[in-house]
Amino acid sequence: MSVSTTKIKTLYILKALLEKSDEEHLLSAADLTHILNQQGLSADRKTIYSDIETLRDFGYDIEQVVGTSKPGYYMASRDFELPELKLLVDAVQASKFITTKKSRELIGKLEKLTSEANAKKLNRSVFILNRPKTGNETIYYNVDQIHEAILTNKQIVFQYTEWNMDKELVPKKNGEFYETSPWALTWDDENYYLIGFDSLSEKIKHYRVDKMKKTHVSQKERQGKEQFEDFDLASFAKKTFGMFGGKDEKVSLVCDKNLVGVMLDRFSRDTILTPVGEDRFKITALVSVSPQFFGWIAGLGTGIYIEGPENVKKDFRKFLDDIIRKYE
Fold this sequence. Notes:
This protein has 328 residues and is α+β, with helices and mostly antiparallel strands.
């Protein structure tokens, strides 16, 4: 047997162990010999044992089970364990900014990271059909352009779109191109967002990546370095409701005690809870005051009260009054 044939034989054994073996599915020396024979390669038990030892010496965790009715070998550890792959599959399925087609492709690639038997446990793609998914395939190109701009310290240019009555994404501002300095990408409220610095308004702004069109890297250098030196993405997400911007305010909220979990989930476990009587507590949090914030407050009903500042209370009353007038 030539040296090249010996190398190929070892690789086929590795391929078989990766694809067909796990703790519940063992491959005996006879099984591996049969697999090699199907590829036109000859082998015996002695060479199988030698090849497995070579793979072990290289670092593969191959275990042997003996003393059973069907002894054999299996790949004991992989880069990703089955529970980790399940988490990744669930994340792909839940991501509405990933198209149905791309979701299936990504799940198919994840399945190749485990055995064929375990891959069947991962194949839950039937659920994708009942989940809202974007139809915009350009999101992957957008992400690539954004990463390139960040890597090369350049700005990006793009058209920003919105839905019309014909359920089509059409450019905003009559097709005018936006220009921004990209600094981060974040996943919030089931959407993917670009966080960047707008030099015209001198503000940090965010854009939904799936609504960006004709994205390309500019030759202009990025701006906003000072604004992003101490930028905390987690804090930005906590204060911004549904990624709708507004004026930042320190707002005091008085809540029923049954809303402790809601407040900690929203503003983090580091939030200070100050008791107010026996059944209520108060928190002070930095929020981006917007209609989405007011809608969140309204959704919690009488269990929460905006204590201050006064201008936020006034704006909230106007928000409620405007809604009530729609029903008069």
